[in-house]
Each structure stands twice: as structure tokens, then as C-alpha cells.
């Protein structure tokens, strides 16, 4: 997030796009309710009539996969109606003119048939966003998991910059991270293309800096997860070590994923339970849960928070950092970490934004990075006064339609997501009776009109087929989903929706378009 | 105790007193800061005086989040069952409890310790001594003064301390409290009753300082008039079902029972706190849920503000405000009360019928046969299994302890049947009082427990608790015509009374048995019904959707057959077991024919779990279907909120 969670309560407009906030980030949802109490407006963009829409002042039931067209049209309206902040654009940013030219044709009338929204709805969103002083954008995977995911986020950045909604309280563009430590994992370079702190391996100073602490090491870019599974399938990648991830359920095109896992000569899976993925492993390393270890999590507002061990690890399991330590030793490396605090000392040394974040300082309340020095108070709002790169860069993001589209064979769009009571692939939540009881099995949400057309009754088994595969799921008939659109949660191994999703990737960073798959629906005989 | 004894304690002596108590019994004191205050053993934690209230009500010490009920072990000689109600931490003194929580304890005492005595609660409660420390300031959402449970503790404590400048006024409420005084006698000085006046003055000051004041005089009337108000939809839209509100409530008593199988041949049954705010609390195996999103959210509020008090005479809400504090979507019982009052002020609406009547049932105080306590079943052995229909089996069982058969009293309507390691299901008793030496059950394979039961063989062991529930009033049926209406497996509950009626045929008028199902194969008691139809004055009618060659049947609904019975309707009692919607349709037609709603007997087979009015799953309005029902008159049924 460019801004902080508490700032949501002071916003005058909250634009929620592709985020089921109350169900997936309930405590951020709480701040939305606080803002509404104070008179804020709530605008929601989502193909499902999520709970928030019951409280929204405007709701855009968008066609899945078309966020970019919607955002570009908002930008066009704002330019057309001269609602931009010229001073901010001139003093803080560059490349504005290129964007202006690129969206000239993106009128609401142009976007209407693409997004299946009315031109008036698009204008209303654009005007209110541009005219409201404290306007905050919240988004999640509903924006990112599309073939235009990166472009859409860059377009949101354009939108925020041209209206001076960056670097001030209760503004900004705010991705709500889906996991407690996904921010921290990224910061620490659980990414193929960076070293910790988003430092490019190609920079000479990066190599030099890390070599001082780590000694000589290979400093090459890796492959992302999609590429890795391709390399496994091609027989090029010979071994894989998976820590705390369950790709059999969470990655697209399950058939391909399983095929690759079966093929790879050596697979290690480290997790707290025997997951669907771990069943394919040659070696399973039992990891300790969050209650059984010390360390830090970095949350969605970049706040590094301390966690403390409540119980000793059960059985043979060990904290992840201990397991990794032991493996490093066994492959002949010298390691002398004795505690997570000691690992943090090294992070202080190598990652500038974490430079001043020590366990000692976060005993009571966490600190938000960037926090470069031991006396720095942390940074609740990014890009105040100046962008990290100096001037904010406007980018041209032309709309294009790639990946799955409706066709005669596959007339429906399938979108995936979660329910309140389960987390991700259910490795933990499906083992807890009180959560599993609430949603013991998966379902497919379908609009009453479509159900009537296809002769589908409530709870009836429905067959859903994409170009990749087929699954069946009981129907949940609801007008909370767009017509000709269906929704299936991905928590349930029995209804593995990722058997249907495809490997349509965002061309820039290869994130799979899990939110958009063309499917066909029929009653399962 | 006849009189309330008074003492004073110097403030600086408090620690010395706590130390003395702690030498004998662990003393738990408030510890932590701001919103995170918990009761901790004083040996392990720093005591604080700077707190408004405990984060969780003190109830968690006597009704723990997870408690073992019993263990079972399969051995050479059968299955051994051991009651685990007494497995807990032991004696404790709980210091620093506020009035809202002591009031909550007074209510939970009433709830758990009367009628079907809860052995787990009793065991924990006996070992706990509660020292209240009266509040001098209010939290943001405190409203005990509005509901009348505070601001100072009046009930539920053993000792109550009130801070009067340099000293505490100490009031003794129970013998347990006096024991504490006696244990540290030298620090306590007898006090003059004048101090009670000082306390009262202070109480008024504190009460006036409360920011939140509500006039709840007309609350029940306001509630009756806003049962169907529009604002409930907003509340329902906001609720994400996190169950935080019920987890922090001092008067929430519901629980769910879970099997924890440790090995193939042994395990435990445990209970956890459960919440009416989770969607599945009332949902059954076949998707039917008597509560939708609106009635789910509304039920909690009505239970707290009305149903509990209606039934037990105690306030169901002690005004602690915790539910409002914790709600992530700002659902507030306070705002809801305001919304009710405002709605009634702004628009005249008629009160909902089911919120006006004060139908009260005598609360059954039935002796439980089991010597192992309420939740531990008696072991029984299956003697025979019979395939009744393609989906229904009949099971004959005998208690392993033959004396249980000797003492067996045929009252009630159902048993709770345990499959060890799998769970428990309520099954109706399809036999009359003549059945002394064995018990018989008919069941359909619909859920995880019945699935295992379905596969069981003679010689296999099960567990039995019961009988529970209010059965059909056999004696009052004498001399009357009887119409039995049962659809599919629902004929089983009716057989409890049908059997003795046929045994004493001469005591009754005409007997009409109406069996309905989709197909003939779906009916139970096919052979029996053929036999019954041979008895003089007994007619069996069939209403089936699909035609059959087996019997003469009407193709259609059972309702179609009613007018043709040509009974003297004023002298007829109908006994109906079907889905609620079918019951309503049948009752409506019977009343058109001239029957009184009080002569139509129905059984409401809802989500019964514990059988004893404790777990809360089958509560409808202020009534527990398992204790007050499942048999009701149609007249009574119509006074229940439509959530069954």
C-alpha cells in the first residue's frame, strides 16, 4: 500500500476495485465502515455483487478482465472535462502528454461495450474520483490476476497521479495483500528477479554489497513459477523445493501442474500439513506453524511486526528458518544464525528500507518501511513530496484483449476467489471444524436467468468445462453474480477450479489470468 | 446467609490479602493493558487496576472454550465410558470481576444448574470463588445501567469490593465469600452500615457519569413492532459471520459437540463454544436452514433482549457492550435498540403475533437414567437390523446394563444415539410403553453418523442418552377419533403413540392413518400398515406422487384425502409429522373442515443436539424444541417465530 490501513477511515471516497474487502480483509473493511459513518462515499467495481455493494453509493458490475478499458476511460473523462491537477502533473511527474494522447479515443462510449457498463456509470466514477480530495483506491487480485494486470495497475497509478491522489493522507493506490506476509516475502526476494530489498542482481553495487556478507555467490535471475513448471515439464528442471505453497490447488491448469510434479526427478515440500502438493514429494519437511515460532511478518501496509512462539513445535517440525539453516549446513555452507533476530541484523545491513527495523524496536508495535535508520520513525505514506524515482512516471497502457474470451463453445466467463471462512487452499482452515462446517464444500455461483435457461436447480450438480478440463460443482443460484458469468472458490480440493483456469499470462510479469476463463456450463447427468 | 456482612479493607492491605488467599488457592487477577485484559494467576502476572473490563467475560473460567465431556474405550468386555466433567484446573479465586460479568454468572448458574444439570459447568462452578470489584468509570459501549444489571454488582459474586477513598467496602454475599474473609481475618475490620449509604452515593455518581443512557421501558413492545423492520436487512448485509459477538458475550451458552477420535478403539467427545451467528448453526444435512441472514442476525438480538428473560427471568444482556466493541462491521446492539425505538416512533406498525403471546411451557425436570451425567451415554448392543425400505433401517438394541431396562420409563419422544468416534443423532422412539426389554429405532441414511450406523451389524455397540423431549399426550387422546398424517420416514415419530393406540383400540374412536411419499418404496412400515388396516375401525390411506400396484393409493397430496374422511371433526385429534410447510397446509385444510388448532398435534423436528435445552441449536424464540417439544399443538406452533 502507498498509504496505511487506518487512513481508510478518514477517506472521503473509497474506490474498491477487484477486492471483496469485508470478506477477505475484514479489518480493512472495518475502516471502510468507519469512513461511511463519517459520511464518505463508497464506489465498488466488481463482477460480483459483493457485500460491500449493499453499502455502496455507486456500483459497476464490470465484465471480468476489462478493468484496463474502464480505468482508461475514467482517465479520458478526467482529461476531457479538465479535472486534472495541472500543477501536480507539471511539478511531480513526467510523460503525461503521451498518456493523454494514448487515451484520447477511450471515451466512455468506447469502453461501454467492452466493460458491459453504461457510459454514464464510467463518467460518474471518473468525476467523483477526480473531484474528491481524499480519494483512496483499494484493490486486490481482481485487478492483478488478468492478462492486463500490470497495465491496469499502471493505469491506476496514472489515474492517481493526474488527480493528485498520491503522497497525501487517505489517498494513494493500495493493494491489499492476500496473505499475512506476502509483502515480507516479496521484500526478502522470494521473487525470481531480485535480491532482498528489490535490488536488481545486474547492478554491480548489489553484487558487491551482498558479497561482503554472503561471500561469493551466483547472482543470476531465476524463473517465475509459471516458467518453472514449464521447465519441469520439459525435463530441464530436475529438482524443486517448495516451501509453504500448494500449487496443485492454487496454480492455473492443474492437469499440467500435476503432470510436471509427477515428472520432476526430485521434489521437496516443506509445509505444516501434508498438502495436495506434498503428496507428490520425494521428501516432506514438516514445518512449524505460526504459533510455534518467532520472527516477523510484514503486512499489507509495509508494517514489520514481531510474532512470538506460543507453544513448542509439535513432534519433529521446525521453524522454516531452522530447516533452511540445516539444509545450508548440509550442502557445505557456513551458517551461524541462532535466532530470527540475528537474521534481522543481516537484513538491516543489506536492505536499506529495513535498515532501522530491529526486533528491539518492534516489541510493542511494528514499524512501516522505509525505515532506513535506527532513529527513523517509519513511513506511513509513500511518495510524499517526491517519488522514489524522482518524478512520477506516466505510462501508456493500451487496452488489448488477450487470453480467454467468450465464444460459442465457451459462452460463460469463470472468475475465481475465496469465501470468508476459508483461507487459500484450505490447508489450515479446512481442518478446523468451525470454519469447515460453515463452508464444507465448494459451489458454483450462477445467475438465476442463466440457471433458468440451462434448467439448473439450486444445489444441483453442474458440469463446468474449459479448454483445459472439466469439473463438477453444486449450483448456488444468486443474482449477486453478473449474467453469463460464474464464480467458483478455489479452496476445495474436491472442486479444483484451477483444473479449468488457463495459462493465459500477463505478458509483462507472467501472472496467470485466474480471474478470467471461458467456460461452458451444463447440468451434470 | 441471612444477613449481608460488611467489612472494610485498607487499600494498601489488598496485596497482603491476595497473597494470603493465593497461598491456599490460586488467585487470578486482571493483567495486561488497554483492550487486552485477561485474568492470570497472580504468581505469573502483574496485577493491574487500570482497566475498564476483562476482554473476555469471566464465564470462560466456568464454561471453557473447549471441554471434554466423556471418553470411550473399546475393550474385551465392550465399551467403557468415562465422564470427564471433572477434568479441569481446580480451585481458583477470580479477583476483579465487574458487575456485568457477575450478572452473567448469575444467569449461567440459572441456565446450567437447573433442569437438566450440566455436570461440566457444575464441577467448574463449585471450584470458583468470585470477587467483584465495582466499576468507577464506563467504557465506550457500557450500558449496564440501562438494562439494570449494574453499575455495581448485586448478584453472582461471593465478595464485592467498592472503593471508598482510602479503603474498600467489602460485602459478603456467600459462605464462600465469608471463608475468604476468615482466611485473612486480621486485615478486615467490621464495618458500619452507614458505609452502605456512602456506597449508594458513589453508585449514583458513577451511574450519572455513564455516557450511554437508554430508556428500555417499552423495549419488548418496540421489538414486537419491529420484528420485520427494514433495518434488519442492513444489519444482515453487514454481518460477515465472524462470531466475535457471541464469543465475548457473558450470557452466551451454546456449544457444539465434536468427536476427537484418538485411536480406532478410543476417543473423546468434547464440546466447544458455538455461535448462532454462524450460518451452519441451524443448517441441516439437507441444506434446509430455518434461519436466513436476517433472522440469524435478528435472533441474537432478540435472544439477548427478550427470549432469555422470557424463559429464565434473567436479563439476557448484561450491558457490557463487548459485542459492539469487537464487531468488525459495526453492528451494535445499542444502535439496533435505537433503530427499534426510532422505527416505532416514526411509523405505526402492528406487533408481530409471535412476539406478543407469552406461551410458557412447564420446563421439564426429568430424571436422567444415566448415572454418568447428562452428556455421557449408556452403552447398548444392537441385537437385530432390518431393512425397512431401500433407505430406512430398523435397529433393535438392548442396554448392556439390564437394570436400565428395568428402570426404563416410557416418556419423551426421542433418544440421542451415539456412534462412538463418529457422533450423535436424535432418533424418535417408534414404540409404545409396552416395549420394555429392548428399544427400537428407525432411521434413514442421511448424514455422517447415520451412514456408519447404517452399516452396523448385530453385536455392534452404540451409546444411548434419553429419552428426551415432550411426546404426544396419550391420555388426552382417549375417546377421540385420531388422524395420523406422516410423510415418508416421518411416520416413525407417530408410531410412538400409534402403537399404544392400537394396543388399546377400544379406548379410541376411528383411527385414520395417512401415509404419503413420492413413491411407495419410500414409505416405512409397509407391512405394518397392511396389518394395521385389518384392525377394525382403522383405515390406512396412501397419497403417493407415483402410482403403485402394491396398494390402493391416491396420486397426489395427502390434503386431497382429508375431506373424504367424513369425521366428526370436533371430536378428532390430528397428529401430523411433516415438513413445516406441509404441516401448515394440512393444518389449514383441517381447520377449514372444522378442527380447532389446539386439536392438531405436530412435531417440529429441528436441529436437536444435546436433547436437554443446553446446546442451543434447536431454540426457536424462547423455546427449546428438544425440551418443550418436539410435539406442539398447532396453536402453539403459530405463536413461535417462523424459524423452525
From TrEMBL, chain A:
Residues 412-516 form the Molybdopterin dinucleotide-binding domain. Residues 1-330 form the Molybdopterin oxidoreductase domain. CDD domains: MopB_CT_Fdh-Nap-like. InterPro entries: Asp_de-COase-like_dom_sf (IPR009010), MoPterin_dinucl-bd_dom (IPR006657), Mopterin_OxRdtase (IPR006656), Mopterin_OxRdtase_prok_CS (IPR006655), Prok_molybdopt-oxidoreductase (IPR050123). GO terms for biological process: respiratory electron transport chain. It holds the Pfam family Molybdopterin. It comes from the Bacteria. One of its GO terms (cellular component) is membrane. Keywords: Iron, Iron-sulfur, Metal-binding, Oxidoreductase. One of its GO terms (molecular function) is NADH dehydrogenase activity. This is Formate dehydrogenase major subunit/formate dehydrogenase alpha subunit. It comes from Anoxynatronum buryatiense. The lineage of its organism: Bacteria, Bacillati, Bacillota, Clostridia, Eubacteriales.
Automatic annotation (TrEMBL), chain B:
It comes from the Bacteria. Residues 229-260, 308-339 form the 4Fe-4S ferredoxin-type domain. One of its GO terms (molecular function) is oxidoreductase activity. Keywords: Iron, Iron-sulfur, Metal-binding. Residues 375-474 form the FAD-binding FR-type domain. InterPro entries: 4Fe4S_Fe-S-bd, 4Fe4S_Fe_S_CS, Dihydroorotate_DH_Fe-S-bd, FAD-bd_FR_type, FNR_nucleotide-bd, Helical_ferredxn, OxRdtase_FAD/NAD-bd, Riboflavin_synthase-like_b-brl. PANTHER family: ANAEROBIC SULFITE REDUCTASE SUBUNIT A. This is NAD(P)H-flavin reductase. The lineage of its organism: Bacteria, Bacillati, Bacillota, Clostridia, Eubacteriales.
Amino acid at each position: 500500500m502507498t498509504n496505511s490501513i487506518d487512513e481508510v477511515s478518514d477517506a472521503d471516497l473509497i474506490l474498491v476495485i477487484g477486492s471483496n474487502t469485508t470478506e477477505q480483509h475484514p479489518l480493512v473493511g472495518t475502516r471502510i465502515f468507519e469512513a461511511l459513518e463519517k459520511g464518505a462515499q463508497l464506489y465498488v467495481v466488481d463482477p460480483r455483487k459483493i457485500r460491500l455493494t449493499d453499502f455502496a453509493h455507486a456500483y459497476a458490475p464490470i465484465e471480468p478482465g476489462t478493468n484496463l478499458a474502464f480505468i482508461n476511460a475514467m482517465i479520458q473523462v478526467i482529461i476531457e472535462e479538465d479535472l486534472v491537477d495541472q500543477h501536480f502533473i507539471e511539478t511531480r511527474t513526467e510523460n503525461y502528454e503521451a498518456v493523454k494522447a494514448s487515451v484520447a479515443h477511450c471515451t466512455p462510449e468506447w469502453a461501454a461495450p467492452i466493460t458491459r457498463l453504461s457510459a454514464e456509470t464510467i463518467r460518474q466514477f471518473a468525476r467523483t474520483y477526480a473531484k474528491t480530495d481524499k480519494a483512496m483506491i483499494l484493490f486486490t487480485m481482481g485487478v492483478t490476476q488478468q492478462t492486463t494486470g500490470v497495465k491496469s495497475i499502471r493505469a491506476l497509478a496514472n489515474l492517481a497521479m493526474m488527480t493528485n491522489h498520491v503522497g497525501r493522507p487517505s489517498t494513494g493506490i493500495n493493494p491489499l495483500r492476500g496473505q499475512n506476509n506476502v509483502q515480507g516475502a516479496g521484500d526478502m526476494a522470494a521473487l525470481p528477479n531480485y535480491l532482498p530489498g528489490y535490488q536488481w542482481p545486474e547492478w554491480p553495487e548489489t553484487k558487491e554489497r551482498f558479497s561482503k556478507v554472503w561471500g561469493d555467490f551466483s547472482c543470476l535471475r531465476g524463473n517465475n513459477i509459471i516458467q518453472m513448471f514449464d521447465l519441469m515439464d520439459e525435463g530441464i528442471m530436475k529438482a524443486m523445493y517448495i516451501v509453504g505453497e500448494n500449487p496443485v490447488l492454487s496454480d492455473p491448469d492443474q492437469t499440467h501442474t500435476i503432470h510436471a510434479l509427477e515428472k520432476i526427478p526430485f521434489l521437496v515440500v516443506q509445509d505444516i500439513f501434508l498438502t495436495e502438493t506434498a503428496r507428490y514429494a520425494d521428501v516432506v519437511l514438516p514445518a512449524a506453524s505460526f504459533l510455534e515460532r518467532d520472527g516477523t511478518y510484514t503486512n499489507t501496509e509495509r508494517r514489520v511486526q514481531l510474532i512470538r512462539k506460543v507453544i513448542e513445535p509439535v513432534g519433529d517440525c521446525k521453524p522454516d528458518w531452522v530447516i533452511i539453516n540445516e539444509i545450508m549446513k548440509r550442502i557445505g555452507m557456513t551458517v551461524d544464525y541462532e535466532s530470527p533476530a540475528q537474521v534481522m541484523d543481516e537484513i538491516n545491513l543489506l536492505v536499506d528500507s529495513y535498515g532501522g527495523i530491529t526486533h528491539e524496536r518492534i516489541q510493542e508495535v511494528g514499524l512501516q518501511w522505509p525505515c532506513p535508520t535506527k532513529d527513523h520513525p517509519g513511513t506511513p505514506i509513500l511518495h510524499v513530496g517526491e517519488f522514489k524515482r524522482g518524478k512520477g512516471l506516466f505510462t501508456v497502457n493500451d487496452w488489448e484483449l488477450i487470453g480467454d474470451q467468450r465464444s460459442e463453445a465457451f459462452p460463460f466467463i469463470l472468475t475465481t476467489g475465496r469465501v470468508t471462512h476459508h483461507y487459500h487452499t484450505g490447508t489450515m482452515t479446512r481442518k478446523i471444524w468451525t470454519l469447515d462446517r460453515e463452508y464444507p464444500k465448494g459451489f458454483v455461483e450462477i445467475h438465476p436467468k442463466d440457471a433458468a435457461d440451462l434448467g439448473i436447480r439450486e444445489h444441483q450438480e453442474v458440469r463446468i468445462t474449459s479448454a483445459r478440463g472439466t469439473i463438477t460443482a453444486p449450483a448456488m443460484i444468486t443474482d449477486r453474480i453478473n449474467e453469463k458469468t460464474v464464480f467458483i472458490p478455489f479452496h476445495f480440493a474436491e472442486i479444483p477450479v484451477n483444473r479449468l483456469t488457463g495459462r493465459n499470462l500477463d505478458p509483462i510479469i507472467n501472472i496467470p489470468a485466474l480471474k478470467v476463463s471461458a467456460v461452458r456450463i451444463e447440468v451434470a447427468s | 446467609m441471612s444477613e449481608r456482612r460488611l467489612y472494610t479493607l485498607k487499600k494498601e492491605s489488598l496485596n497482603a490479602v491476595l497473597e494470603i488467599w493465593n497461598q491456599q488457592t490460586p488467585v487470578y487477577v486482571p493483567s495486561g493493558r488497554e483492550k487486552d485484559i485477561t485474568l492470570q494467576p497472580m504468581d505469573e502476572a502483574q496485577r493491574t487496576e487500570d482497566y475498564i473490563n476483562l476482554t473476555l467475560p469471566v464465564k470462560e473460567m466456568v464454561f471453557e472454550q473447549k471441554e471434554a465431556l466423556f471418553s470411550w474405550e473399546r475393550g474385551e468386555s465392550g465399551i467403557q465410558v468415562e465422564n470427564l466433567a471433572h477434568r479441569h484446573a481446580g480451585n481458583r479465586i477470580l479477583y476483579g470481576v465487574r458487575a456485568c460479568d457477575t450478572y452473567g454468572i448469575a444467569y449461567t448458574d440459572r441456565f446450567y444448574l437447573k433442569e437438566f444439570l450440566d455436570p461440566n459447568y457444575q464441577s467448574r462452578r463449585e471450584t470458583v470463588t468470585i470477587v467483584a470489584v465495582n466499576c468507577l468509570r464506563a467504557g465506550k459501549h457500557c450500558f449496564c445501567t440501562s438494562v439494570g444489571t449494574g453499575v455495581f454488582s448485586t448478584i453472582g459474586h461471593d465478595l464485592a469490593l467498592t472503593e471508598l477513598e482510602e479503603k474498600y467496602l467489602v460485602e459478603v454475599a456467600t459462605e464462600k465469600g465469608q471463608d475468604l474473609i476468615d482466611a485473612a481475618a486480621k486485615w478486615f475490620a467490621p464495618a458500619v452500615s452507614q458505609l452502605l449509604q456512602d456506597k449508594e452515593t458513589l453508585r449514583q455518581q458513577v451511574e450519572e457519569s455513564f455516557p450511554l443512557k437508554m430508556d428500555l421501558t417499552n423495549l419488548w413492545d418496540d421489538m414486537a413492532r419491529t420484528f420485520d423492520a427494514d433495518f434488519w436487512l442492513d444489519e444482515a448485509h453487514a454481518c460477515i459471520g465472524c462470531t466475535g459477538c457471541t464469543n465475548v458475550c457473558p450470557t452466551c451458552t451454546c456449544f457444539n459437540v465434536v468427536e476427537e477420535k484418538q485411536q480406532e478403539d478410543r476417543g473423546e467427545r468434547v464440546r466447544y463454544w458455538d455461535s448462532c451467528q454462524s450460518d451452519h448453526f441451524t443448517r441441516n444435512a439437507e441444506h434446509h436452514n430455518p434461519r436466513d441472514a436476517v433472522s440469524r442476525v435478528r435472533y441474537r438480538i432478540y435472544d439477548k433482549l427478550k427470549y432469555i428473560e422470557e424463559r429464565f427471568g434473567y436479563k439476557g444482556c448484561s450491558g457490557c457492550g463487548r459485542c459492539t466493541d469487537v464487531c468488525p462491521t459495526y453492528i451494535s446492539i445499542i444502535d439496533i435498540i435505537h433503530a427499534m425505538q426510532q422505527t416505532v416512533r416514526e411509523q405505526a406498525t402492528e406487533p408481530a403475533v409471535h412476539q406478543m403471546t407469552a406461551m410458557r411451557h412447564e420446563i421439564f425436570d426429568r430424571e436422567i437414567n444415566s448415572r454418568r451425567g447428562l452428556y455421557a451415554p449408556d452403552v447398548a448392543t444392537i441385537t437385530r437390523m432390518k431393512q425397512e425400505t431401500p433407505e430406512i433401517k430398523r435397529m433393535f438394541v438392548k442396554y448392556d446394563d439390564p437394570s436400565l431396562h428395568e428402570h426404563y420409563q416410557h416418556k419423551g419422544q426421542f433418544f440421542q444415539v451415539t456412534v462412538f468416534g463418529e457422533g450423535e443423532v436424535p432418533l424418535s422412539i417408534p414404540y409404545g410403553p409396552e416395549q420394555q426389554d429392548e428399544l427400537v429405532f428407525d432411521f434413514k441414511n442421511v448424514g455422517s453418523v447415520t451412514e456408519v450406523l447404517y452399516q452396523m451389524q448385530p453385536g455392534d455397540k452404540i451409546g444411548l442418552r434419553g429419552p428426551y423431549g415432550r411426546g404426544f399426550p396419550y391420555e388426552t387422546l382417549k375417546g377421540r377419533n385420531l388422524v395420523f398424517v406422516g410423510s415418508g420416514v416421518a411416520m416413525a415419530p407417530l408410531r410412538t403413540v400409534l402403537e399404544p393406540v392400537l394396543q388399546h383400540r377400544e379406548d379410541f374412536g376411528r383411527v385414520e392413518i395417512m401415509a404419503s411419499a413420492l413413491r411407495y418404496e419410500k414409505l416405512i412400515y409397509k407391512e405394518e400398515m397392511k396389518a394395521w388396516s385389518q384392525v377394525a375401525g382403522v383405515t390406512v390411506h396412501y397419497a403417493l406422487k407415483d402410482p403403485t400396484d402394491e396398494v390402493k393409493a391416491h396420486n397426489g397430496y395427502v390434503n386431497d384425502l382429508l375431506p373424504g374422511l367424513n369425521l366428526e371433526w370436533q371430536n378428532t385429534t390430528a397428529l401430523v409429522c411433516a415438513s413445516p410447510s406441509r404441516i401448515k397446509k394440512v393444518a389449514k385444510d383441517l381447520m377449514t373442515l372444522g378442527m380447532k388448532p389446539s386439536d392438531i398435534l405436530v412435531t417440529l423436528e429441528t436441529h436437536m443436539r444435546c436433547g436437554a435445552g443446553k446446546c442451543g441449536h434447536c431454540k426457536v424464540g424462547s423455546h427449546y424444541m428438544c425440551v418443550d417439544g418436539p410435539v406442539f399443538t398447532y396453536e402453539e406452533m403459530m405463536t413461535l417465530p417462523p424459524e423452525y
